[in-house]
Structures are given as C-alpha cells and as structure tokens.
C-alpha cells in the first residue's frame, strides 16, 4: 500500500508540474515593443519579444547603417543569429591577412640579402677579369697595326670601282625615266577617252533606272499597305474576341458572387470572421502607443486618400496617431514607440471557436 501511495504521489506531482508548465505557457504574457524613426533619409526600426521573464527573447532590426539583422535567445544561449556567420568570417579574414603580411615581409628581406651577395660577387669577378686581360693587350696591338694597313689599300681600290659603277647607273636611270614618261602620256590619253564613254553610258542607264525604280517603289508601297491593313483587321478581331470572353467571364463571376452573397450562411460566416478580426486587434492592441510625424506624396489626391485610410485604421484599432498631412511637398518624417503584451490562451480560445463554428466547417473544412 505504501508503494502504491508513493507512486500515486509521484504521478500526481508530475501531472501537477505539467499542468503548471502548460498554465505558464498559456497564461504568461508575451511582451513586445516596436520603436523606429524616419528623418531626412535616415531610418531605423527595432522589434523585441520577451516571454517568461526574458527566458525566451527575440530581437530584430533594420536600419540604413546596420542593415537587416535578428537573433533569438533561450536564457544566455543564442538559438538563432542572422549576423553570426558574417562576424566569424570577418575575423578569419583579418587573421589570414595578418599571416599574408608577415609572409610577404619575410620574402622581401630574403630577396634584399640575395641581391647584396650578388653585387659583391660581381665586383670580385670584374677585378679578376681586368688582371687577366692586361698581358694579352700587348700582343694584340701589333696585329691591329698590320691589319689597318691592309684595310686602307683595299678601301682605295673599292672607291675607284664604286665611282665608275655610279656613273653607269645614273645614265641608265635617265633613259628609263624618259621612256616611262612617254608611256604615261599615252596611257593617260586612253584613260580619259574611256572615262568619257563610261560617264555617257552611266547617265543613260541612270535615267532608265529612275523610271523603273519609281514604279517599283509604288508597287512595293501598295503591297505593304495591303498587308498592314490585313494585320490590323486580324488584331482588331482578336481583341474583340478577347473582350467578349472577358465580358462573359465577368458576367458569370458576378452572377455566382450575387448568388453567394444572397446565401444567409455566407453572410453569417462573414459576420463571424469580422467579429474574430476585431477581437484579434483588441488582443494585439498596444497598451502604450506614440506615432507622430508628417507625410506627403507631392500629389494632393494621393495624400488625401492616405489621410482617409489612416482615419479608418484609427477608427477600427483605436490607436492614437498624430500624423499631419502635407499636401504640397513630398516628405516623410515619423517617430514610433509601441508597447504591449498578449497571451497564447486568447489565440487558443479564438481557434477553438473558429473550429467549432458550423459555417467555417461548411466553407473551409468540408
């Protein structure tokens, strides 16, 4: 009996803990806060969620400086981080760049030492070569004097033969020039005569071609106009068919919508969904709200339409907004600060009501 009592107590304690956890999850409030601003081309928006005394928390932001980012935590451990990989990659890049700089510095120092050794070797080699060449220069001077005497005698003979050859070539060039000038004059006369005949023939052919091209152009234009008219007639017929099909489609659609709108069950479904929507807005309605700013699109009619929509939102939600319209300039400046909380039990109740509603089952679940 004692063992059974102990087992029952343990089971009851476990069930109590489970019920406590379920109650905490369902009834504990989820706090949220939205902040942001838009001023002179700069913008920033931040959102924060916290649950069970910030045991579960999530943050998201977007701005012109930081970009887009988000992260989620359970106690002090990050479960999700949108920018975590980028930070690690940046640290790796910095480490690799430092290593590359050290390698390049070591290579440069080794190259400098090698260059200094090469210069010293070249200096020693030059000194040795000059010492080896000094005794050889004495024998070479005698041979150079003998070779210069022979070269002078050969240059005198070559100068005499070159003068005779130049005189003969000058005479031949003058004879060839005279012969070529006579041939050119005859060729020019023949070319001028042929060009005159060609110009006359070309003028006659142009006159014939102009007459023929005029009639050809007229024929081509008439044919092209005929085909263009046929294409336009076909396009008009196709557009008329499409317009007729659209009219038939809209007529059938309007008739089906009219039948549905006259259905009392559909009206009851619309009324139920509208009631759920208003309750959802009440659940999510912020406890503290501050929205102030100036807006304008530069178009008077569009700015007026936006003012009407904002007034309708204020009437439905009940949020205090001090947004001043500017009908002349294109401008947007705004400050936003919203705080609130909600619980999961309210969403659960709405879901159960929607599931049990017969009209929802008829149109969505069946």
Briefly characterize the structure.
With 366 residues, the chain is α+β, with helices and mostly antiparallel strands. Helix content is 72%, strand content 19%.
Q: Count of helical segments?
A: 7
Terminal Cα separation, in Å?
Answer: 52 Å
Largest sheet: 8 strands, mixed
SSE ordering: HEEEEEHHHEHEEHH
- Give the proportion of residues in helices: over 70%
Overall geometry: elongated
- What does the average pLDDT come to? 77
Rg over CA atoms: 51 Å
Low-confidence residue ranges: 84-97, 117-139
Q: Beta fraction of the residues? A: 15-25%
What structural class should be given to the helix and strand makeup? Answer: alpha+beta
Total number of β-strand segments? 8
Characteristics:
single chain, 366 residues, alpha+beta, eight-stranded mixed beta sheet
Question: What is this structure's SSE topology?
Answer:
Layout: H1 2-27, E1 30-39, E2 42-51, E3 56-63, E4 67-74, E5 77-81, H2 84-133, H3 136-261, H4 264-284, E6 288-297, H5 300-317, E7 321-325, E8 330-342, H6 344-356, H7 358-365
Parallel strand pairs: 6-7
Antiparallel strand pairs: 1-2, 1-8, 2-3, 3-4, 4-5, 6-8
Helix pairs in contact: 4-6
């Amino acid at each position: 009996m004692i063992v059974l009592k102990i087992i029952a107590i343990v089971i009851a304690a476990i069930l109590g803990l489970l019920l406590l956890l379920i109650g905490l999850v369902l009834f504990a409030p989820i706090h949220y806060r939205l902040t942001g601003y838009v001023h002179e081309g700069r913008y920033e928006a931040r959102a924060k969620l916290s649950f069970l005394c910030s045991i579960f928390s999530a943050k998201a932001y977007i701005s012109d400086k930081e970009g887009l980012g988000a992260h989620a935590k359970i106690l002090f451990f990050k479960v999700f981080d949108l920018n975590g990989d980028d930070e690690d990659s940046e640290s790796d890049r910095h480490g690799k760049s430092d290593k590359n700089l050290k390698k390049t510095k070591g290579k440069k120092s080794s190259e400098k030492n090698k260059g200094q050794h090469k210069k010293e070797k070249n200096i020693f080699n030059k000194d040795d070569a000059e010492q080896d060449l000094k005794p050889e220069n004495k024998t070479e001077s005698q041979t150079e004097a003998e070779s210069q005497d022979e070269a002078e005698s050969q240059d005198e003979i070559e100068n005499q033969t070159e003068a005779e050859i130049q005189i003969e070539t000058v005479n031949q060039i003058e004879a060839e020039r005279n012969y070529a000038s006579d041939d050119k004059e005859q060729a020019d006369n023949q070319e001028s005569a042929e060009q005159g005949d060609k110009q006359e023939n070309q003028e006659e052919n142009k006159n014939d071609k102009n007459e023929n091209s005029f009639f050809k152009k007229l024929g081509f234009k008439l044919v092209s106009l005929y085909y263009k008219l046929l294409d336009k007639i076909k396009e008009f017929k196709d557009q008329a068919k499409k317009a007729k099909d659209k009219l038939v489609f809209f007529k059938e659609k309007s008739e089906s919508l009219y039948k549905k709108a006259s259905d009392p069950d559909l009206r009851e479904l619309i009324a139920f969904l509208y009631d759920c929507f208003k309750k959802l807005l009440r659940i999510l309605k912020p406890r503290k709200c501050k929205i102030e700013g100036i807006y304008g699109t530069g178009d008077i009619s569009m700015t007026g339409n936006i003012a009407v929509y904002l007034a309708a939102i204020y009437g439905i939600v009940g949020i205090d907004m001090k947004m001043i319209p500017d009908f002349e300039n294109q401008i947007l400046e705004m400050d936003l600060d919203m705080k609130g909380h909600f619980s999961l039990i309210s969403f659960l109740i709405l879901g159960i009501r929607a599931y049990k509603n017969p009209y929802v089952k008829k149109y969505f679940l069946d």
